[in-house]
Amino acid sequence: MHLLCVDWDFFFPTPAAGAALGEHSRLYAWPIAEDVHHVEVIWLQRIRRFREAGVQLPRCHGYEGFWNRFTIAPAAPVWYADSNAWAAQVFPSDIGGEGCWASVHLYDAHHDCGYRRNTATFEEWKQRGRISAEDWMLAHHWAGSRLFVHFPPWRESMARPTEEPVIPVNMNIDDGEAPTVTFDAVFVCRSGAWVPSWCDHQFTEFIEACPARPVEHPRNVWRHPRHDVERMERLSRRTGRFRH
After folding, report:
1. Is the per-residue pLDDT at 2 higher than 70?
2. Is the bond into 13 cis (omega within 30 degrees of 0)?
């Protein structure tokens, strides 16, 4: 059995993840944390920075028709949540199977296989006993799955950023070809700390285009769509309030 995981930031080009640097890279120098402040509150401040710089708001690209390339079993569940950390809990036993996934294919701007800046070794991670969006793939490695990470085509090369996962993983830049397997389950995450709230309507379109009926992960906690910061920013300019 095979698991397909898709992180919404796969469709949101950022310089830190390998997109072209450009002259406005500083606008993307975002501190990131999976908490209420960075998932919901901070985007109003960030949208103002784009407006003040006279830069068009970045959007998600390339998600239209994405599902068409894959072979997904007719009865495959499609779970979705805000954080990819919940994908660590998805196993064949959830759909009547046994053991581990034969393969886990992740489409993501990040490899989620542990980062040496905060996890030196796989053994250290096991002893820590905690799973996050940065290391959830380690749970499937531990179970015995083969791991594949497909980085977005907007990434310029594998040289930037330098990838140093804690465990062995097959990594490549997506060329549009699909893995030659049938996926028995799908997990999609919105990555609200990485992708702006003004892209939430696009995420809704992406989820609604899934070939099977998506179901929210039972332990997910979120607001979707998030507050309309485009409207809030327009109102603040009209009234002159909330100026820095």
Report:
1. yes
2. no
Alpha-carbon torsion 46, 52, 53, 57, what sign? positive
- For tokens 């997904």, the residue is 72
Q: Among residues of the chain, what percentage have pLDDT more than 90?
A: 89
- Work out the number of other CB atoms within 10 angstroms of the CB of residue 175: 7
Whether the predicted pLDDT of 242 surpasses 70? no
82-111: burial string, b at 16+ Cβ within 10 Å, e else: bbbbbbbebbbeeeeeeebbebbbbbbbbb
Q: Are 226 and 45 in contact (CB under 8 A)?
A: no
Residue pair 229/43 in contact by the 8 Å Cβ criterion: yes
Task: Calculate mean pLDDT across residues 149-172.
Answer: 96
* Largest Cα–Cα separation, the chain: 60
Which parts of the chain fold into alpha helices (H)?
36, 42-53, 122-128, 137-143, 200-208, 229-239
The C-alpha atoms of residue 45 and residue 28 are separated, in whole angstroms, by: 12
pLDDT tens-digit map of 79-124: 999 999 999 999 999 999 999 999 999 999 999 999 998 889 999 9
Query: According to the model, what pLDDT value does residue 201 have?
Result: 98
Say if residue 70's pLDDT is above 60.
yes
- Residue 180 burial (C-beta neighbours within 10 Å; 0-12, 13-18, 19+): exposed
Take residue 235 and report the two structure tokens written for it. Answer: 């109102």
Q: What are phi and psi of 137, to 5 degrees?
A: -65, -25
